[in-house]
Structure formats: C-alpha cells, structure tokens
Amino acid sequence: MRIIGIDPGLARVGYGIIDEIEGKKIMIDCGIIETKSTKKEEERLVEISNDLSSIIKKWNPNSAAVEKFFFYRSSTTISVVQARGVIMMTLGKYKLPIQEFPPMQIKLAVTGYGHSDKNEVLNCVMHELSITSPPKPDDAADALAIALTGIYLK
Fold first, then answer.
1. Count of CB atoms within 10 A of residue 151's CB?
2. Residues annotated in the binding site, as ranges?
3. Residues 90, 56 contacting (CB under 8 angstroms)
4. For labelling alongside 141, which of 11, 43, 129, 152 has CA 20 to 30 A away?
C-alpha cells in the first residue's frame, strides 16, 4: 500500500508518501508545494493542482489522507479552504480514495494523545518511519503524520 498524506495550505502544501509493506512503514518522499504570495490567488491554486498532479503521477499512491480543516478565525481561512478544495479535486481526478482527519485525531493516532505538541508528533513520526533527521519543513513532517494516520485508521 502506498499513501500520500497532505497538509493543506495556500503558501505551502505539505506532502508525504509512505509505503506499508508487511506492516513496515517506509518513507518514500516528502516535501512541500510552495506558491509565491506575489502571484494571483487563482494562479497559486492552479500551481498547487499541477504540482500535486506531478507528485501523484511520479509516486502513484493507492490512497490519500488529508488534514480536515477545522474552522478558526484567521485572515487566511478562506484561502486555505480554497486550496484544500483544489487538493480534494485533484485527488478526485486521480480517483484516489480519500480519508480526512482533524488535527486532534492525527495527534491521537500518531502519539496516543490528542493534545500532543508538534515535537511529540515529530518524534513519533521519526520513530515509526525509522528516520534519524526530522523532515523539513514542518509541513512535510505534518503530512507524514497525516499519511501514518491514514495507514493506522484504514
């Protein structure tokens, strides 16, 4: 099984690709899709879709896990929701089964505690994937946690 985990955003979309083979989880790739704030929002959304399509074509995941947006008041809320919509549409275009998880559920699945901090989540991700260096940037590490959640809760 190969899964792509996605941490949505407009400026940066984190992604992480994990294989699960006979119970062992192996990180294949992780990184970010970054868009420039100097571009028009619609151009940034197209860039996210195009770059995500390239990642899907390259790694051919069987499924996807996406962080579910929970509402909070912020000047970027609408932009993030729009980016998430583009991400969901792009995943749908490739007919990938999608699981959605709110942040607390991701923390609970990865660490066993729904109120874990970022460092606790990161340490558990590194341990589970047997990696010695923290994935950078944080968005990529978060995407790996989301992918692991998709594996754990399939």
1. 20
2. 7, 67, 139
3. yes
4. 43
Domain positions in the chain are: 2-152
| 51 in active site | no
Q: How many angstroms separate the CA atoms of 100 and 150, rounded?
A: 8
Catalytic residue among 20, 67, 128, 142: 67
Burial class for 131, CB neighbours closer than 10 Å (0-12, 13-18, 19+): middle
> Does residue 100 carry a catalytic annotation?
no
Mean pLDDT per 10-residue run, the chain (154 residues)? 97 98 97 97 97 98 92 70 95 98 96 95 97 94 98 95
Detail the residues annotated as belonging to a binding site for Mg(2+): 7, 67, 139
Phi-psi region of 79 (alpha: psi -120 to 50; beta: other; left: phi over 0): alpha
* The domain made up of 2-152 is a member of CATH 3.30.420.10: yes
Catalytic residue, candidates 7, 51, 128, 142: 7
> pTM here?
0.95
Distance CA 36, CA 34 (A): 7
Q: Catalytic residue, from 51, 128, 139, 142: name it.
A: 139
Give the span between the Cα atoms of 83 and 48, in whole angstroms: 8
Residue 9 exposed, middle or buried by CB count within 10 Å (0-12, 13-18, 19+): buried
